[in-house]
Amino acid sequence: MELLPLTAEFDAAMARIVRENLKAHGLDIPGTAYFDESLDHLSRYYDAPGRGYWVLWDGRVAGGAGLAETDVLPQFAEMQKLYLADGAKGRGLGRRLAEHVEAMAREMGYRGLYLETHTNLTAALALYEKLGYRQIERPGSVVHGTMNRFYMKEW
Question: Model-level pTM?
Answer without folding.
Answer: 0.95
